[in-house]
């Protein structure tokens, strides 16, 4: 390779992320270790890379990674679980440290991952301009049961999220989408565009401090609509007469969409990876998601 040649972009690695909503319409966010190789110091939804040795689907990846990073488990059991908190913690550490597999832990405790509880909620592909670390991440939404609900053996709010000891995550907490966005705007937390996009999408739906059936149905409808299957391949453009930088998504007028259609994130980079973000999206998510956004463009 000559000095004038650019390195070939890496192939995107398959990964999954879980947007976990509790009964108070709060979403689980984890803060990555500042020394992490990916998303250092940022607030993200729990998730990680697909592991072909133990994951049979990206949904299972999302559940396993949430268990490892935050200590919350979406799992079902045909019989009442006898899993004690101390065993739960030890198993989590063993799975995270590679001493045992996630499937072995589930089998030994008569559990099965509740993959059916996961609602597809867009897929994002890192732009090819990022040469070294690229991801193809499928996002899912799931709703936690409250402590009086049946069905989930460990996916209830009696198990509060806890960090993994700093290996990857140094902080875990539930935040309302609006509160998380406010903290980003005031510089208290850092986000990447996919997380901002999803939080902003859920913000008007998850209003109020109590999760309602109509709100959960709205998220379900959005997941089952074209939006849930949308594959987003950002492209960078200069906008507003060249003043601003924007990640422009499928369906935007700059990507061949109808004149006046905006589907973009206008960003500013100063200090943090992104100091400001503003989502411009002027179409109905339930009925007007661009068809071309479902076609993978790696």
Uncertain stretches: 148-158
Q: Give the end-to-end Cα distance, rounded to a whole number of Å.
A: 23 Å
Instruction: Please give the share of residues in helix.
Output: 10-25%
Radius of gyration: 19 Å
Largest sheet: 5 strands, mixed
Question: In DSSP terms, counting alpha (H) and pi (I) runs of 4 or more, how many helices?
Answer: 6
Mean pLDDT: 87
Quick one: overall form? Answer: globular
The assigned structural class equals alpha+beta
Strand order of the largest sheet: 4-1-8-7-10
Amount of beta strand:
25-35%
Helix and strand sequence = EEEEHEHHEEEEHHHEEEEE
Number of strand segments: 14
Structure description:
There is one protein chain. This protein is an alpha+beta fold and 298 residues long. The chain has helices spanning 58-70, 85-97, 102-108, 177-185, 193-202, 213-224; strands at residues 13-21, 27-32, 43-44, 47-49, 75-76, 112-113, 119-125, 135-143, 169-175, 231-232, 235-239, 244-248, 263-270, 272-281. The strands form four sheets. The protein has a five-stranded mixed β-sheet. Strands 11-12-13-14 form a four-stranded antiparallel β-sheet, covered by helices on one side. A three-stranded antiparallel β-sheet has the order 3-2-9. Helix 4 crosses helix 5 (193-202). The protein is globular, with a radius of gyration of 19 Å. The model is unreliable at 148-158 (pLDDT under 50).
Keywords:
alpha+beta; five-stranded mixed beta sheet; 21% helix; globular
């Amino acid at each position: 390779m000559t000095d004038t040649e650019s390195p070939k972009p890496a192939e995107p690695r398959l990964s999954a992320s879980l947007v976990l909503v509790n009964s108070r319409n709060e979403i689980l966010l984890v803060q990555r270790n500042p020394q992490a190789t990916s998303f250092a110091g940022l607030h993200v939804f729990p998730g990680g890379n697909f592991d072909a040795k133990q994951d049979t689907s990206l949904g299972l990846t999302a559940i396993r990674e949430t268990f490892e990073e935050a200590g919350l488990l979406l799992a079902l059991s045909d019989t009442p679980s006898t899993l004690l908190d101390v065993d739960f913690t030890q198993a989590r550490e063993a799975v995270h440290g590679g001493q045992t597999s996630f499937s072995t832990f589930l089998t030994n405790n008569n559990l099965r991952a509740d993959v059916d509880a996961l609602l597809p909620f867009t897929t994002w592909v890192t732009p090819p301009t990022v040469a070294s670390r690229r991801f193809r991440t499928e996002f899912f939404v799931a709703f936690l049961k409250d402590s009086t609900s049946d069905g989930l053996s460990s996916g209830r709010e009696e198990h509060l999220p806890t960090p993994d000891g700093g290996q990857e995550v140094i902080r875990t907490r539930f935040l309302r989408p609006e509160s998380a966005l406010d903290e980003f705007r005031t510089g208290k937390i850092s986000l990447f565009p996919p997380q901002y996009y999803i939080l902003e999408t859920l913000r008007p739906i998850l209003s109020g401090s109590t999760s309602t059936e109509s709100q959960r149905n709205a998220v379900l409808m959005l997941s089952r609509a074209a939006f849930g299957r949308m594959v987003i391949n950002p492209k960078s453009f200069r906008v507003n007469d060249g003043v601003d930088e924007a990640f422009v998504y499928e369906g935007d007028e700059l990507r061949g969409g109808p004149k006046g259609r905006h589907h973009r994130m206008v960003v500013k980079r100063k200090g943090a990876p992104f100091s400001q973000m503003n989502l411009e999206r002027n179409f109905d998510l339930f009925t007007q998601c661009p068809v071309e956004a479902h076609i993978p463009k790696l």
